Amino acid sequence: MEVATDYLVLGSGIAGLSFALKAAQHGTVAVVTKKERAESSTNYAQGGIAAVLSPDDSFELHVEDTLKAGAGLCHRDAVELVVKEGPRMVRELIEWGVEFTRREGKLALSREGGHSRDRIVHVSDLTGREIERALLERVKEHGNIEVYENHIAIDLITEHHVFGVKGVPKGHITCWGAYVLNTQTGLVKKFLAKVVLLATGGSGRTYLHTTNPRIATGDGIAMVFRAGGKVGNLEFMQFHPTALYRPDANPDEPAFLISEAVRGYGGVLVNRKGEPFMEKYHHMGSLAPRDAVARAIDQEMKRSGEPCVYLDVTHKDPEETKARFPNIYARCLEAGIDITEEPIPVVPAAHYMCGGVATDLWGRTSIRNLYAVGEAALTGVHGANRLASNSLLEALVFSDRAFRDSLPRAQEPEKFPDVPDWSEENVFNAEEWVLLSHDRDEIRRLMWDYVGIVRSNYRLQRALRRIRLIAKEVEEFYRRTKVTMDLIELRNLVQVAELIVRCALARKESRGLHYTTDYPELDPRWQRDTILQKKP
pLDDT tens across 193-249, in order? Predict the structure, then answer.
């Protein structure tokens, strides 16, 4: 089966949907999403969108806060571009129907770690869910957008499929779409498009403990690398410092996030004795950037032997706390914790990938006709550590730029090569899959134990050896069996895990989210992006 369209969007979060709404004004759009259309990391975002909207704030302050958090690795031109577009992006969301929290008729602004001013527009503590709701309602209204739920991309369609590996000119790869599996019927479709937008989200599921939904398996990054495109800075996995600690938690379910806005609201990190400890580690105390807070919590837990630390808001007005964080209050209450009367037990968890598919300032990747935006992309905005609430803003800005840059290409006459149908004569080997499926858990544990908040070359090399063995097993199984969603995700998961470790080994310094016991911090010789590309 073949689907031909002007635009193919892989992913249904804020990046993919905002692009689709604009592209649909000029052509047909197919949105491919792995689960139901509302399942995305956007839906789980609690904090908000950072934007300069008050008279005591400025673009310069927001830029400097971002650069400081990024530990010297942000691309200033990308940061300035995104920050200056902030107010326009917020107005656009309001026009699309997003109902941000207001106080006395004005947008309510909060502060999060690393910010020097109140500049986070939000919807209580459910910002992502409200944005997703508004965008999906607009998508439903548009006749030019077709959403394919329960579909997962297997691989990008490039010269490799049309002409074979030997027919690919070095450095000149073109994307014409993707092979996509309908997970309900088991049929593989060819999606052909003049423009392909990769908005596949993050890769938190490479780790045992994560705030990410089950779909965050790094699919876009893995597909681009396999196709010969450039990826980079994958060593910078941001661990959110404050995920709710539950001793009986199921690692297959996303850890519940205690928003950074709780610390911005006045929450204080304390140990079991109720003693604040962040001042020992950073001059900003509990409002320090995430990398510093995560390392401090990790050290406190190792020193005390305790399984968690605590985030205390009991000194704040109880009714105000419940009004500001209704979802967090309710979820904690379900776990037997009244946050107005007792501190919240918290631990770090893998949260946001600051690296990804390398792009320019228009979202263009190293593969022609292919754009990457959102958490799947390395745009240069986040550097070695993302500043809180910059991610939704970055996704909106680069989706907008990718749309504007791709418009001339989408309006050209349709000229697709003769792309072969998906060939699959193999049968799924259920017995062998039972053995192989355990590799998923092993990968996540290896990454958590050896490629976590604090690293060493010895642990990284140990992880790489084992991951490469698993990757070989998975690829051999993939090539002789019928594809399923679980198999596609496992293949992508092990690919991205290997790339994370390779990037970590390549960076011979401690910087931001990559903290290693083998090298000093901020070595000027390594003040550059870590770029990987598959050899032809």
Answer: 999 999 999 999 999 889 898 889 999 999 999 999 999 999 999 998 999 999 888
Query: Residue 190 to residues 163, 321, 486: CA-CA distances in angstroms?
Result: 16, 50, 20
- Largest separation between any pair of C-alpha atoms in the chain: 69
Q: What is the pLDDT of residue 282?
A: 92
Contact at 8 Å (CB) between 242 and 343?
A: no
Map tokens 């949260």 to a residue: 351
Tens digits of residue pLDDT in 400-416: 999 999 999 999 888 88
- CB of 14 within 8 A of CB of 417? no
Q: Let me know if residue 131 belongs to a domain.
A: yes
Supply 279's token pair.
């001042």
* Interval 153-206: pLDDT, tens: 999 999 877 766 555 566 679 999 999 999 999 999 999 999 999 999 999 999
We report the CATH number of the domain holding residue 481 as 1.20.58.100
What share of the chain has pLDDT > 90, as a percent? Answer: 72
Residue type at position 68:
K
> Are residue 226 and residue 257 in the same domain, yes or no?
no
Task: Reply yes or no on whether 290 is catalytic.
Answer: yes
pTM across the whole model: 0.91
pLDDT score of 369 more than 80 = yes
Q: Is residue 527 part of a domain?
A: no
Backbone angles phi, psi at 477, to 5 degrees: -65, -45
Instruction: Give the chain's domain count.
Output: 3
Integer-rounded Cα radius of gyration of the chain: 22
Range of the domain at 168: 2-236+354-410
Residue with tokens 């037990």: 345
Q: What is d(CA 468, CA 474) in angstroms, rounded to the nearest whole number? A: 10
Say if residue 39's pLDDT is above 90. Answer: no
CATH number at residue 303: 3.90.700.10
- Give the count of alpha carbons within 13 A of 434, CB side only: 2
- Report the first-to-last Cα separation within the chain, whole angstroms: 30
- Do residues 486 and 449 lie in contact, with contact meaning Cβ atoms separated by under 8 Å? no
Catalytic annotation, pick one of 37, 290, 440, 455: 290
